[in-house]
Design brief:
By secondary structure, this protein is of the alpha+beta class. The protein has two domains: 168 residues, Jelly Rolls (Sandwich), CATH 2.60.120; 123 residues, Arc Repressor Mutant, subunit A (Orthogonal Bundle). It is 46% helix and 20% strand. The protein has a six-stranded antiparallel beta sheet, with helices on one face. It has a four-stranded antiparallel beta sheet with strand order 3-8-5-6, with no helix packed on it. Helix 5 packs across helix 7 and helix 5 packs across helix 12. The C terminus is likely disordered.
Length: 300
């Protein structure tokens, strides 16, 4: 049995790439029970297990430690700032290759593969694409002195194969990836609309860029997320105006507006009547694109 670590590590010194770039990459054949961590990194770090097995301990977004048993043919990703510990098996220690990367689109690409902060383990639904992914990553690790553009081409090839081979992505795509994130955002808005909620906070909760969330809402709901939040709050205000005796000021606070004048101005713009005048109407008007929301819920 192999009794000592075999390690190689290389730096990618070219910082001119913005959408996606590498920092380090390498190979590690671990000795039995070899422990790495607890550590955290400033960038994304992906490991692909060539042989053997081990265990990953990672902190989720509630700081609860989650445990995963990982074997050959699987992989795992660490998110920036995430605290992790990973240990090689005592009888069949793992051998893996890895890459550290980041960039403006890195988060979006990781999410496209179905890998999330709370679900960091890569498994495959397409072994042929998985093998392409492993080959692309192995080329990078084995050829650290190749031209930067060539290595970046292989990094994009690695990401593409990871996305197309991921079992996690396939599970999400059954209900549409866009609808998946749209519903996640809608659920969050429905739980937090009553406080000072921002679109950026919703995007952060969904682990997507704000501009990507805007594209999702425009495609799935035909309205940007800020307008959806306004519509949702106004609809809730309509319900409260009809079913309670709360004052306008109280209702303003209950639907997330600390300033009643701002609330009244927004309400009048959306409903063409002031809250006080609208309260006198006999029927409540639903301003939310409800049919589209229900369509999403039925598919997720």
């Amino acid at each position: 049995m192999q009794l000592k670590d075999i390690i190689s590590e290389s730096w990618f010194p070219h910082g001119r790439f913005t959408d996606l770039t590498m920092y380090k990459f390498g190979y590690h054949f671990c000795k039995p029970d070899h422990v790495c961590g607890p550590w955290s990194w400033n960038n994304f770090l992906f490991h692909y297990v060539i042989s053997g097995k081990g265990r990953l301990l990672s902190h989720d977004d509630t700081d609860t430690i989650q445990e995963y048993d990982i074997e050959a043919g699987q992989g795992f990703v660490f998110w920036p700032g995430q605290v992790v510990t990973f240990t090689a098996d005592e009888k069949d220690p793992w051998e893996y290759i890895w890459v550290e990367f980041n960039g403006l689109r890195a988060k979006e690409m990781v999410l496209q593969a179905g890998l999330q902060y709370n679900h960091p383990v890569y498994t495959t639904a397409d072994p042929s694409q998985r093998d392409i992914m492993a080959a692309e990553l192995k080329f990078i690790v084995d050829n650290p002195n190749r031209p930067a553009m060539e290595l970046m081409g292989h990094l994009y090839g690695f990401i593409s194969a990871m996305v197309h081979s991921s079992a996690q992505l396939n599970l999400i795509e059954e209900g549409s990836l866009q609808d998946f994130y749209a519903q996640k955002a809608i659920d969050y808005i429905s739980q937090h609309y009553h406080r000072d909620l921002t679109v950026q906070e919703v995007a952060d909760h969904c682990n997507v860029h704000r501009s990507y969330l805007h594209r999702i809402f425009t495609a799935c709901l035909n309205t940007p997320p800020q307008q959806f939040l306004i519509n949702y709050r106004v609809r809730k205000a309509c319900e409260l105006l009809k079913t309670t005796e709360h004052s306008i000021s109280e209702i303003s606070s209950l639907v997330g507006y600390t300033n009643p004048l701002v609330f009244s101005r927004i309400f009048k713009k959306e409903m063409k009547k002031s809250p006080r005048d609208w309260k006198k109407l006999k029927e409540t008007i639903d301003v939310t694109p409800k049919s589209k929301v229900n369509k999403i819920k039925s598919r997720v």
